[in-house]
Design goal:
By secondary structure, this protein is of the alpha/beta class. The chain has four domains: 2-120 and 254-323, FAD/NAD(P)-binding domain (3-Layer(bba) Sandwich), CATH 3.50.50; 135-251, FAD/NAD(P)-binding domain (3-Layer(bba) Sandwich), CATH 3.50.50; 343-458, FAD/NAD(P)-binding domain (3-Layer(bba) Sandwich), CATH 3.50.50.60; 461-553, Rhodanese-like domain (Oxidized Rhodanese, domain 1, 3-Layer(aba) Sandwich). 26% of the residues lie in helices and 26% in strands.
Length: 555
């Protein structure tokens, strides 16, 4: 059996190796357009930053063996052909046609089964000058290697990063922390990671970037890019100019499905290749996997694209199984993300509030701040969390979190519950591993379900951290923290009345609280604010709210 795989990244190579393992007599060829393949593109920012010392580390195994053509031939039984750019697929003749070595010659390869794993391509803003020298998309290995060399030789003093998504934020850290490069981050939206998180999480990210010395310009569209005096200049929509040595475009990616369309394969509303649950295309002898594929959301069944290495690798295995007469299935997907931003870890699963509002969902939200292990254990670190759930049935729709500590375990828990259509009750039913160095007796997701239930049954309003500064001036802020906490994290309440009474003293001082307007109780993480609110609820007729997540959820 002749197997041809188009594309030499995670999904394509995983499919090729799986096929070779299951059917050792199959002839498996992988056609790669460029010189580099098998690279961990997710690692590009960390090579640039110096966290990864050699580019070879992005293409080797854990034991240090470089995954080159010889490795795949001798170890995996797969033939990898570099500088073979596929230009057409002849489905009737079952042939793939290539340009080799930049077009110096041509080659054709027959196939019994074909795998399209062409990945994604960067989206560049449609503005004049976007093709200027010094403007990069950070998608090619050659560009990343060249940037690292220029940083090591002090040839770059300032960069402009266009796009406040994953790669843009990782590059802020990469350029600034190790190399001390000045960074301007420009984004068209009103907050960073606007497709992933909501504004209360984004404000914490922005505060960290500003603290690290990154200049952020939000709601800033680029009008033109020009080269001037050996520098790159960006003009925004107001006509203001920002100069830099390099401009990095990180405005997102789109499925690289052009080859599939030319071959007459079905593509979807996202531009990705349509596949079934076995990852077959509209031609049953052609499979597709990775970033070029359109997938189905586990939340609402809508089509989408999720360019993630974790999904791509799993898709490759599914394709390999099914080409070898297996019955593996893939999807639907939640969309689970995690990103390092300087010392912060930011994660999400599912969609954000803006998406559900656009789609007409009736949702509720809750916020909470908890530690990633028992508070008394060294290095215990707060995690700020937000959960979005459906009002009618408590089905969990989205989860977002930010911390300087450990996040991935709780993020993975939330993602699985969302994928399975779970509710807040499923959060409460989690059975988790517990020991003080690793976890809390109650999992943070337990607490999030409790907060949602308590708010509903006690009729106490949860005040979003994003809305705290916008509370009416007749609101009274009741701060029930101890003086040392207030000193380390003071509240800016503007013209609102603020009363500071430690929760331990509140019961005997309730007569100091005026209930004419709304009372919002505040503590460091939220727990004592609940105690204070319940004291008021039991003894006074007050309109009570709680700063959800506490003062540690404020930037």
């Amino acid at each position: 059996m002749d197997i041809v795989v188009i594309g030499g990244s995670a999904s394509g190579l995983k499919a090729a190796c799986r096929i070779s393992r299951l059917q050792p007599d199959a002839k498996v060829r992988v056609l790669v357009k460029d010189k580099y393949f098998a690279t961990s593109n997710c690692g590009f920012p960390f090579f640039l930053s110096g966290d990864v010392d050699s580019f070879d580390r992005l293409i080797d195994t854990p034991n240090g063996t470089v995954k080159d053509e010889k490795y795949f031939r001798d170890v995996k039984g797969v033939e990898v052909l570099i500088k073979h750019e596929v230009v057409s697929i002849d489905r009737a003749a079952r042939l793939v046609r290539c340009k080799v070595d930049g077009g110096t010659r041509e080659a054709t390869f027959p196939y019994d089964k074909l795998v399209i794993a062409t990945g994604s391509i960067p989206v560049a803003p449609a503005i004049p000058g976007v093709d200027s020298n010094g403007v990069l998309t950070f998608s090619r290995a050659e560009d990343v290697i060249q940037l690292r060399k220029e940083l090591e030789t002090n040839k770059i003093e300032k960069v402009i990063i266009v796009g406040g998504g994953f790669i843009g934020l990782e590059l802020c850290d990469a350029f600034h922390s190790m190399w001390g490069v000045d960074v301007d981050l420009v984004d068209l939206q009103n907050h960073l990671l606007s497709n992933i998180v909501d504004i209360e999480i984004a404000k914490l990210i922005e505060a960290e970037l500003i603290k690290q010395g990154i200049r952020i310009q939000l709601e800033c569209g680029c009008r033109e890019i020009i080269e001037e005096s050996n520098r790159i200049c960006i003009f925004d929509n107001e006509g203001d100019m920002i100069q830099a040595d390099r401009v990095i475009l990180t405005s997102g990616v789109t499925p690289n499905s052009g080859l599939a369309r030319l071959a007459g394969l079905d593509t979807g509303v996202t531009g990705g290749i349509k596949v079934n649950e076995k990852l077959q295309t509209s031609d049953p002898d052609i499979y597709a996997c990775g970033d070029c594929v359109e997938l189905t959301s586990a939340i609402d069944g809508e089509a989408g694209t999720w360019p993630m290495g974790s999904l791509a690798s799993r898709m490759g295995r599914v394709v390999g199984d099914n080409i070898c007469n297996g019955d593996s299935k893939f999807g639907p997907v939640v969309g689970t993300n995690v990103i390092k931003v300087f010392d912060l870890t930011v994660g999400s699963a599912g969609y954000n509030s803006a998406y559900f509002e656009e789609q007409g969902y009736e949702t509720e939200v809750c916020w909470g701040t908890f530690h990633d292990r028992l508070h008394y254990y060294p290095d215990a670190t707060p995690i700020n969390m937000k959960v979005i759930y459906e009002r009618s049935n408590n089905r969990v729709l989205g989860f977002q979190a930010i911390t300087r500590g450990e996040l991935v375990p709780v993020l993975t828990e939330a993602a699985q519950i969302i994928r399975n259509g779970g509710t807040l009750d499923d959060f409460a039913d989690i059975e988790h591993a517990y020991a003080p160095p690793y976890a809390l007796p109650f999992d943070p997701l337990h607490y999030m379900s409790f907060i949602a239930e308590n708010s509903r049954t006690a009729r106490i309003k949860l005040v979003s951290p994003a809305d705290f500064d916008e509370l009416p001036n007749d609101t009274t802020i009741l701060d029930v923290r101890i003086p040392s906490e207030i000193k380390t994290k003071p509240l800016n309440v503007g013209e609102k009345t603020k009363i500071e009474i430690p929760v331990e003293d509140l019961r005997k001082r309730l007569d100091e609280i005026n209930c004419d307007g709304m009372i919002v109780t505040v503590c460091q993480t939220g727990g004592r604010a609940w105690d204070a609110a319940l004291m008021l609820r039991r003894t006074r007729s007050c309109n009570i709210g709680i700063l959800a997540g506490g003062a540690l959820f404020l930037p």
